[in-house]
Design goal:
It contains one helix and five strands. The chain has one helix at about 70-90, and strands at about 10-15, 20-30, 35-40, 45-60, 60-65. The protein has a five-stranded antiparallel beta sheet with strand order 1-2-3-4-5. Strand 2 and strand 3 (about 35-40) form a beta hairpin. By secondary structure, the chain is an alpha+beta fold. The relative contact order is 0.17.
Length: about 90
Amino acid sequence: MSDEKEYVTFTVETMSGDTVEMAVLYEFEYEKKMYVAAGLVEGDTINSDGVYIYRAKETEEGFKTEKITNHVEYERVVKAYEEMLEEEEEE
């Protein structure tokens, strides 16, 4: 039996036009919208030092991520995510 956790992954295009693979670390809801916190996949590992937040929408194929372009929405979602992590650490 393996202790390795399987992650849902998706790809995003960087500003330079490269495609990178991301792994979903957390899924959460905020103000009736779904979001994911993801880490960059580097070889066989996931870099969780820099977490990226995306809006997520369910589709027939699974889910689709969208970059959050509204600065105010992004800041509010990041704050909600950080509060969620703090609550988990307290448990």
